[in-house]
Write a structure and sequence with these properties.
Strand content: 15-25%
CATH topology of the largest domain: Rossmann fold
CATH superfamily of the largest domain: Response regulator
Shape: globular
Number of helices: 14
Distance between the termini: 91 Å
Largest sheet: 7 strands, mixed
Structural class: alpha/beta
Radius of gyration: 24 Å
Number of strands: 17
Length: 408
């Protein structure tokens, strides 16, 4: 008969064996981030899929042990409804929670907090690509080419493709905010540096459901090109009205008609869903790889969306890709800091981000930062809407934006 001591020891071994298999192999560390987005509200058509992209990437990171050692990222995503005061409150609450990186959204909110970012020395990854966010700023890391790069680049594209010796006559159709006005001012600075276009009129759109009078006025003034910098919905309304009036150019720069062009938030599959055939011929500048390109990058984006049950609308949105990229930048910053054997804190992540270099399936080019470079993806793709999808025409980098920056 076994002794009581032997029986007790055997029972102890069984308990320990069961206990070992009921605990995770490694609890790992959890790194806290915070994200504030307009998931609802006036720009939710962009903010909603953006939030889904970021959420899905962080889920993927945690489920696949992407960081290694069981480490995870905890990134609450809160809806600020495009309200600056709400964004500020969320930011302060995130700081109290000890976040390492802040993932922000709107131009106004980022401008309002710009000095706060510098004061608390926290790396920031915005969803706004407003040029002013990186002027006299150290801690804001722009994911892709700025709106000003888009707008000035499109103006350069107009000059390059315009037929005839006359100066291209251009109108701007913009959001009534700092978000809309910034690229206009930088385009004017580019003109002062020698860019050969005339800005005939600037339209700050409201909530008008009919653009008939505006379109007819632009035509009467000899405008051939309309550069848009706003969000998809007002552009869709304008394109639909232009199609109804028969004033949309059938080919680029067609005389007597209007050729429409737009920056980042004015295009993509979301625009086609809103305006349908009225988008045909629309030229669009963006730094994201589109799923309509049907390349390996697109395949990876669609696989991520399928993994987390996203519908086709979200899966194919460049705003979904934008959310993924922001989350990837934060993830790579943590991963590379860890790889270097450094303590994971704001100071070391900031150092890492200044030398970050990686490829993303969501972006048109590699993401690279340096101590003097705060724009991750410099290249823009020029797309054209054709047969219900946007197709890449060429890769493009603005030359005049460098002159504008040098003049600051």
């Amino acid at each position: 008969m076994k002794s009581k001591a032997t029986l007790f020891f055997n029972a102890f071994l069984v308990i320990m064996f069961v206990f070992a298999f009921t605990l995770p192999a490694s609890a790992g560390k959890t790194y806290k981030l915070g994200m504030s987005l307009a998931i609802t509200g006036p720009t939710s058509d962009a903010g909603n899929p953006y939030a889904k992209g970021a959420e899905d990437w962080f889920k993927f990171v945690n489920e696949t042990d992407y960081l290694g050692d069981g480490d995870k990222i905890d990134c609450p995503i809160r809806d600020d409804q495009y309200k600056n005061d709400t964004t500020k409150r969320f930011f302060e609450e995130f700081l109290d929670d000890g976040i390492l990186i802040f993932l922000s959204y709107a131009t106004g909110g980022n401008l309002a907090l710009k000095r706060d970012f510098e004061e608390v020395q926290i790396p920031v990854i915005p969803a706004s690509y407003h040029e002013g966010l990186i002027v006299d700023a150290n801690y804001t890391f722009m994911p892709v080419a700025t709106y000003s790069e888009n707008a000035v680049g499109l103006a350069e594209y107009v000059v390059e493709k315009h037929k005839g010796t006359d100066t291209p006559q251009v109108a701007f159709f913009i959001h009534p905010s700092a978000f809309g006005r910034g690229p206009l001012e930088d385009t004017r600075k580019a003109i002062a540096e020698g860019l050969k276009i005339d800005i005939v009129e600037v339209v700050e759109h409201g909530t008008d459901l009919d653009n008939t009078a505006m379109l007819q006025r632009l035509q009467s003034k000899g405008v051939q090109y309309v550069i848009c910098h706003t969000v998809q919905t007002p552009v869709a309304t304008m394109l639909t009205d232009a199609q109804r009036l028969g004033v949309s150019a059938a080919s680029f720069g067609e005389k007597g008609k209007l050729t429409f062009l737009g920056a980042h938030y004015t295009g993509g599959s979301d625009l086609i869903a809103l305006a349908g055939t009225a988008t045909e011929g629309y030229i669009w500048a963006d730094s994201y790889n589109l799923t309509s390109e049907k390349n390996e990058k697109a395949k990876k984006q669609l696989e991520l969306a399928e993994r987390y049950g996203r519908d086709d609308k979200a899966a194919n949105s460049h705003n979904y890709a934008a959310g993924i990229l922001a989350a990837q930048i934060a993830t790579e910053a943590i991963k590379e800091t860890k790889k270097a054997g450094l303590k994971i804190n704001r100071e070391n992540i900031y150092k890492t981000m200044q030398a970050l270099n990686f490829n993303s399936f969501a972006a048109a080019g590699p993401v690279t930062y340096s101590p003097t470079e705060r724009i991750g993806v410099d290249v823009m793709n020029i797309y054209v809407a054709k047969d219900g999808v946007f197709k890449k025409i060429q890769a493009f980098e603005s030359q005049y934006i460098q002159k504008v920056r040098a003049g600051r």
